Amino acid sequence: MRPDMPADHTTEAERLLRTAAQYPEDREPLLLQAAAHLELAGARDRATGLYDTLLAASPERPHLVKALKAANLWEYGHEAEAHAIIDGVRAAAPLDPAPWEIVAETLESHDELEAAHDSFTTALDLLLSPDEEVSYPIQSLLAGRHRVRRLLGLDHDARDGLADRLHKADVPLDELHDPKRLWALGSDNPAELQAEITRLRAELGSYRTALSRPFPVAVLHWPEAELSELLAAYPALAAEYPSHEAHLTQLEASLRDLASTGTPNLGVVTGTVPSYEAFAASEATTPSDASLLPQYATTLAARGRATPWPPSRNAACWCGSGKAYRECHGVA
Fold first, then answer.
1. Helix (H, G, I), strand (E, B) or coil at 37
2. What is the pLDDT of residue 31?
3. What gap in Å lies between CA 200 and CA 202, rounded to an integer?
4. How many CA atoms does the CB half-sphere of 322 hold within 13 Å?
5. How far is the C-alpha of 66 from the C-alpha of 81, rounded, in Å?
6. Among the listed residues 187, 208, 120, 134, the one whose alpha carbon sits nearest the alpha carbon of residue 164
7. pLDDT at 205
8. Is residue 307 part of a domain?
9. Is 321 contained in some domain?
């Protein structure tokens, strides 16, 4: 059986659902992966059911789940409902680039180019700061906006120039996003087809580079309630965490120190006491052992639980305060 056959995607979705039942702390990303496989298998109604299950449970990234649900609904004839969800996501103005990209690309794929352009632009207005390094998710928004502007026949602006400068592939963005490429796909000219293969390989290379990056060097974050529960159960760890405020301050300082030494791909993982206890049991040791904490952080990062650091200045702070990063732990 080929790996892209629908039955294979269904099998993988079922495996992910079983894993989610076994590891409830990782339920959200696992269900999102399962929903993606169900979509690829053509079981879009089941995928919608998973998105609804997640939304009913107050997910960590509700706007992302809503955007994915909208994209899925539109693909099997529920355009009006999809539009209503997309309008809600856009009105909420999330400080997370992922739902913006999904919304904009969904609109683009259904030829609503002006609305797609507006979504990309609004996202960048919220998330792009001129005085900080442009993260990969923001680069993706810039590239998407560049692509839509080429399709609309708009002249380059400053953000298109920034997208060009950040693009590292051999084939420039203007060529990758040339609307005439679509015609080349139907050509019977071998030279044109070979040129298109070269362009596609360059575009695929950038995706492979992003996907092949190692999981982040992750620093462990404890929400206040979880830290209180942890220290009540394992007072020996109090030396590591004299107070919750000191924990948050030290976490940010550690990340800045790592960044200053050139350490790439930094992230924050959020711990829970049940998850930590389960990890300690799997390592056949006691949760009171402080040396277990960095290993736990690394394991969470390897499971895809890390949030990239630093967030953009206007994005929500990693600490969960609800404030923008620039007004919270991102204060210089």
1. helix
2. 92
3. 5
4. 0
5. 11
6. 134
7. 55
8. yes
9. yes
* Residues 290-332 pLDDT 10s: 999 998 998 888 777 888 888 888 888 999 998 889 899 988 6
Provide the β-strand partners of residue 218: 267
The pLDDT tens digits of the residues spanning 179-193 come to 776 555 566 677 766
Is position 257 within any domain? yes
**Residue 278's pLDDT band (cuts 50, 70, 90):** confident
Structure confidence at residue 78 (pLDDT):
95
- What does the block give as tokens for 114? 């002006």
Look up tokens 């998710």; give the residue. 137
The DSSP-derived string for 250-308 is HHHHHHHHHHHTT--SEEEEE--HHHHHHHHHHTTS-TT-TTHHHHHHHHHHHTT-PEE
Summarize the chain as % helix, strand, coil (round to 5). Answer: 65, 5, 30
Residues 263 and 188: their CA atoms lie apart, in Å, by 48
CA atoms of 85 and 154, how far apart (whole Å) = 28
Distance CA 265, CA 242 (A): 28
Give 217's strand partners. 266
Domain encompassing residue 241: 217-327
Cα dist from 167 to 153, 170, 206, whole Å? 20, 9, 9
How would you list the strands of the sheet with 217-221, edge to edge?
A: 217-221, 266-270, 307-308
Cα–Cα separations (whole angstroms), residue 9 to 6, 15, 73, 106, 204 = 5, 10, 19, 22, 22
Q: Specify the amino acid at residue 46.
A: R
- Residue 9 covered by a domain: no
Q: What is the DSSP string of 189-253?
A: -HHHHHHHHHHHHHHHHHHHHHHTSPPPEEEEE--HHHHHHHHHH-GGGGGT-S-HHHHHHHHHH
Residue 141: both structure tokens together: 């928004």
Q: How many domains, the chain?
A: 1
In this prediction, residue 1 has a pLDDT band, given cuts at 50, 70 and 90, of: very low
Task: Identify which of 137, 119, 117 has the alpha carbon closest to the alpha carbon of residue 128.
Answer: 137
Give the highest mean pLDDT range of 162-176, 217-231, 308-322: 217-231
